Amino acid sequence: MGELSQLPMTLHNINTWEITVSLTVLGACGGAACWLIFRKRPSAEELERARRVFLVQSGRIVDGMLLDVCEVEARDGRTLTMLLFNYRIGGVDYECSQDVTEMGELVDPAQVRLGFPCSVRYQPGNPQNSIVVAEKWTGLRIGLPLQHVYEDPDPIDLSHLRPGRG
What we know:
There is one protein chain. By secondary structure, this protein is of the alpha+beta class. It has helices at 2-5, 16-38, 44-58; strands spanning 60-73, 79-89, 92-99, 117-123, 126-131, 133-134, 137-138. A five-stranded antiparallel β-sheet has the order 3-2-1-4-5.
């Protein structure tokens, strides 16, 4: 019995504040873990909508060309309507597509004119992140721009070139 009483004590006395801090840290870590596990993650549609809003608010605009409108079958069996377009930034050509399936009220695939120019919004630091259509913006054009036609004077009559000579 005498030998046990002579062992040096290696455990520290635990104070009340050390227990409180330990329980607080454990509770905070547990709460953060629960939040990460059970939080509502945004759907793919919500992420795409947020991307379009971001590009409308902060994207730069460049001229592009509509290449095609096609329907592609998704992995889940849905049919997606894709708008294919290209554009050039800093000598680099980009060819991208945008899913316009959910924007049926904004984009009628039958009205999209292939080979026509369009405006493309892109992210400056990430140019392949681009769109042609969003909820509050569209880069689609109804037709080609009209050029003003000036009346050409009669080429035989050169009197307008020689004032004072009739």
